Structure formats: structure tokens, C-alpha cells
Amino acid sequence: MDWGEISKVVNELGEDGKFNHIGILNLNMKEIHEWKQLIPHANQTVLSLDHASSNATWEVLYPEWIDEEEEKRCEAADLAAAHKGTQPLHILLATTCFPVPNLFRCEELVTRRGSIWLYKPNLGRLRDKLRLPIGSCQLALPLGGIEEQPYSIPRKRRREAYATVLHSNYVYVCGAIPQVPALAQYYDKVIFIDSDLLVLRNIDFLFTMPELSATGNHEHMFNSGVMVIEPSNCTFQLLMDHVNDLESYNGGDQGYLNEVFTWWHRIPRWVNFLKHFWVGDDAVAKKKKNHMFESDPPGMYVLHYLGNKPWMCFRDYDCNWNVELLREFASYAAHALWWRKAQLQLDRREAEMGNFSDAHWRIRVKDVRLETCIDEDCDWLERLRHWGGNWKQDCRS
Predict the structure, then answer these.
(1) Which of 80-84, 289-293, 389-393 has the highest mean pLDDT?
(2) Highest mean predicted confidence (pLDDT) among 21-30, 56-65, 217-226, 290-299
(3) Which residues does 154 contact at the CB level (< 8 Å), separation at least 6?
(4) Any idea which UniProt keywords this protein has (predicted)?
């Protein structure tokens, strides 16, 4: 521990550096003595936490799969913000790694020197996060309490929004993450939704969750298709400063964000249900999933289309069936659901329910795109014909 840097950080506080009480966590006797020498007039409270149990592995705290309907607790002690009062406090961390940005927010960073980080946290926000389950071995948003989750817009309207990226590079870090500075100007909290998701039911209740809340993906990773974030310019700068230091397991934003936001909160999989038939799914499990895709009203809240996207295929054919590696993402029921919701069928159904006398809603709609080729290796003459140009003259030239 660099006591020279610690001394400089404390001195930078000026009048705020006149501490009356200091809590010292997991330091040895020599380090405790150094603190006494540094701030001799402050009362010291020495706290020692036992080492985590050998059973509390990363896989236990952040399991790949949990039974969301089972009330399960993690095999680790619950944490709590022990400071009960309302007086402001400072937290000093000595670490060579940057602190978890959604737990120790960069806006609350007072000063930093080398491996010494000094924060002045918002106690209410910090308490709320520490009351949530540790890791993701338990739902942070109870499955049965979604509908009852209180959410209302107060008199002073919240700065909240939904956001997506319609056009993104294959290198997702260059697509989604750079939108943060623009969002930070206007919003305090954002529900980010990838463009390959279909929202079937109201998910405003997610605005009650903190950063970073998401569903599980695999191993200890979360899926970034639906996630609650609190956009911040300084967090964005932190991400950019380390973009070359951290390796994304999938080469995209999901892998990179999982390297940064290691403290995340699990929300029910129905809020980001993956269109994926796992290797272990038997015929009954597959039938159950397809039944969910067909159910009306829908049982899930958001459906996430993996593999080839619906707009890359014909409306009545899921082209994931064409590729052996993508067949696990193929489902005619889910594919039809996309187009049933994405096109004007919803409006037509409302017209039918209104029983409009002119009965236009009875007209059978045919998809003219069946004659349209969207692949890069299509016959170029057909493309010219579709574009409506003078293709015969173009052919001769």
C-alpha cells in the first residue's frame, strides 16, 4: 500500500479531510498503525471480515442457470451498508484494478492517485444496491412480483427512456456503447434493447432496477440484449480508456461489458427470452417453447431472436433451418410471431375487433417480397428490375 499516495489524497480534501471517525476494513496491524499516524485525532473502528467460504466460487455466485421459481439464497453472507446515519462519508479503496463502476460510480470519485481511489458515495443509492442479492444466484426482481412492482411517473417526471441501435457494425463496441454520451445528456436511466428483440408486454417496471440489471446468458455472463443502464459520460470514458486492455469473449459489446460490470443483478429470463433450443432440450421442452411463442396473450415479456434475424429471411420461412450451426435458433412459431407483430396485423386485428363496416380488414395481405432477393450474391439483373430502373438499358451499357 502506497502511504505516500494515501497521504496526498487525504490532504487534497482540505477541510473535508478532518475525519472524526475512520472505519478500517481488513488491514493488518502495521497498516492500522500507519492510519493512526496519518490521522491521529480520528477515532478508529477496526473491522475484519472472514475470508469467503471455499464454496463461494464464481460459479456459485454467478451460476449459468437457476430455477427462477425457487426461492434460493446464495451461499455467502449478505452485505449491507453498515453506515446507518445520513452524514456523508468517504470510501478509500487501494486497488490496482478500477472499482466496479456501477457500485462505485465515477461521478462520486473525489480524487485518485495511482492505485488509491477516494469516493464520496450517495448512501441511499449504495444501500439500495447492496440490499439486492449478491451475484446472480437469486433473482433481484422476484418472478412473482413483476406485475406488482410499483412504477409510476411522479410530478417531477423521471429522466428515463428506452434506447436501441438500429444499425450497428459487426464490431458492436463501435455500435452500441458510443451512444452513451448522447443518452447521458438527457437521461438518468435507460432500458437498452437490441434491435433483434420483440417487446410483447409492458416492461416499464425495469426502470425500478439499478445499473446493471440483465438476464443470464451462459456461465457467469449476462446477456446485453435487455439491460438497465445509468448513462454517464465518465463511465463511458472509463470504458473507452480500457477498450484495448480488456478482451471481449465474443468480440462484441456483450463480452466487453461483462468484463467491466462484474457486479450485475439477475432479472427473470421472461424479460429477455432467448429464441434458442438448447442441445439438452427434449421434444417436450421444444414443444413447450413453441407453444409459448404461439400463445396469445404472450407469456413472456420480450423475445430475443438469435441466429439469422427475421428480416434476413422470408416472412414465411425461418432461414436458420438452412445452416447446420444455426438450426438450434430455428422456430417457425417465433419467426411468425415477429412478422405478426412487426407488420400491420396488430392494426388489422384492432380493425376487426372494431367491426368496421367497410371490412377492409378481411382483405388477405400477400407479401410481395417473395419475389425480392436480399442476398449479396443475387442476380444483379433481378435487382435492377426490383429497383425500378431502366434495367434493359443498364444491361446493354
Answers:
(1) 289-293
(2) 217-226
(3) none
(4) Glycosyltransferase, Manganese, Transferase
| 137 found inside a domain | no
Are both 98 and 157 inside the same structural domain?
no
Residue 110 burial (10 A CB sphere; 0-12, 13-18, 19+): middle
Cell 439483373 belongs to residue: 381
Residues 203 and 262 in one domain: yes
C-alpha 94/C-alpha 96 separation (Å) is 7
Statement: residue 396 has pLDDT above 60: no
pLDDT of residue 250: 79
Asked if the structure places residue 70 within a domain, the reply is no
What strands, in cross-sheet order, belong to the sheet with 109-113?
Answer: 91-94, 116-119, 109-113
Position 130, amino acid = L
Give me the pLDDT at residue 70, please.
Answer: 59
**Domain check: are 163 and 209 in the same one?**
yes
Let me know whether 156 and 202 are in one domain.
yes
Question: Strands (DSSP E) along the chain, which ranges?
Answer: 21-25, 43-47, 91-94, 109-113, 116-119, 160-163, 189-193, 197-199, 213-216, 222-229, 265-266, 273-274, 302-304
What's the order of all strands across the beta sheet hosting 189-193? Answer: 160-163, 189-193, 222-229, 213-216, 265-266
Examine the fold and report which residue of 93, 108, 131 is the final residue of a domain before the chain moves on: 131
d(CA 214, CA 228): 7
Q: Let me know: does 292 contact 201? Beta carbons within 8 Å.
A: no
Residue span of the structural domain in which 93 resides: 3-49+79-131
Per-residue pLDDT tens for 18-75?
Answer: 677 888 888 888 988 888 888 888 888 888 777 777 777 777 778 877 777 655 544 4
Does residue 34 sit in the same domain as residue 96?
yes
Q: How confident is the model at residue 391 (pLDDT cuts 50, 70, 90)?
A: very low
Residues 283 and 386 in one domain: no
Q: Which residues pair with 228 in a beta bridge?
A: 191, 213
What's the pTM value of the predicted model, to 2 decimals?
0.76
